[in-house]
Amino acid sequence: MTKIALLGAGGKMGYRLSRNLQGSPYSVDHVEISAAGQQRLKDDLGISCVDQASALARADVVILAVPDVIIGKVSHGIDEHLTAGTMVMTLDPAAPFAGELPQREDRTYFITHPCHPPLFNDETTPEAKTDFFGGLHAKQHIVCSLMQGPDDAYALGEAIGRTIYAPVMRSHRVTVEQMAILEPALSETTAATCVTILREAMDEAVRRGVPKEAARDFLLGHLNIEIAILFEEFPGVFSDAANKAVARAKSKLFKDDWKRVFEPDNVKQQIHDITRP
């Protein structure tokens, strides 16, 4: 049985993983330094934490469910306690891409990250329809990357990824560089920024006198059909008027060189800003 040491087991992501690893085919040691996190695991999930040294000594896989800004510190702090061939798994590409992990040829590094439940889905239960984050009721896709290590280690890393983010539909194998393009460049630097502007635009409409409920209903309804058309969920096209509005507004809302956020050096800078305190 594969032995997993889950560091940060009582934190925001660690708690989700702890819950999903219950009843799995893995033997899990839960490590949590926070007394509040330890108590939460005990009260909610019936899980007792163990000391880090004992967990690391018997671990085949170490999952770092800790914030990006301390991945480097934590990974270097535990490195000497791991045996050759141990898999170290992170839940985000930022720190590995930034070179924060120890340079060890005898270590397997694996990264797995959730796509979160898609906008267009077949969920029918109230619980699944409101599981926006995923990893509980709603199905989601995931991405996985074997940063270094023997290729046959990929199957184990992916299987653990499917467990901690369950229920999972598709699992995509990508490189670390490709995952860094997906996050932060695509999903955060670009998408989250655009969505933030959408919310600010709605607030501006409200400030100018449109009732908030009307503005929200109108915007979210139009987003639903616009995204469906652009992402080929619906065989429709924008109206001539909408196309003219987009063409007129693009240069006013975005710089002509906005796609520079995907350039390697720019991605590295984004990662640098994320992984530094």
Mean pLDDT: 97
Summarize the helix and strand pattern as letters.
Answer: EHEHHEHEHEHEHEHHHH
Helix content: 40-55%
Question: How would a crystallographer describe the biggest sheet?
Answer: 7 strands, mixed
Please provide the count of β strands. Answer: 7
Q: Within the largest sheet, what's the order of strands? A: 2-1-3-4-5-6-7
Low-confidence region ranges? none
How much β-strand is present in the residues?
A: 5-15%
CATH H-tier superfamily of the largest domain: NAD(P)-binding Rossmann-like Domain
> What is the top-level CATH class of the largest domain?
Alpha Beta
Kindly name the structural category. alpha/beta
Please render the helix and strand layout as text:
Blueprint: E1 3-7, H1 12-21, E2 27-31, H2 35-45, H3 52-57, E3 61-64, H4 68-78, E4 87-90, H5 94-97, E5 108-114, H6 126-129, E6 140-148, H7 154-164, E7 168-173, H8 176-207, H9 212-230, H10 240-253, H11 264-275
Parallel strand pairs: 1-2, 1-3, 3-4, 4-5, 6-7
Antiparallel strand pairs: 5-6
Helix pairs in contact: 8-9
How does this model look, in words?
By secondary structure, the protein is an alpha/beta fold. It has two domains: 3-174, Rossmann fold (3-Layer(aba) Sandwich); 181-275. 48% of the residues lie in helices and 14% in strands. It contains eleven helices and seven strands. It has a seven-stranded mixed β-sheet with strand order 2-1-3-4-5-6-7, with helices on both faces. Strand 6, helix 7 (154-164) and strand 7 (168-173) form a beta-alpha-beta unit. Helix 8 packs antiparallel against helix 9 (212-230). The two termini are 37 Å apart. The mean pLDDT is 97.
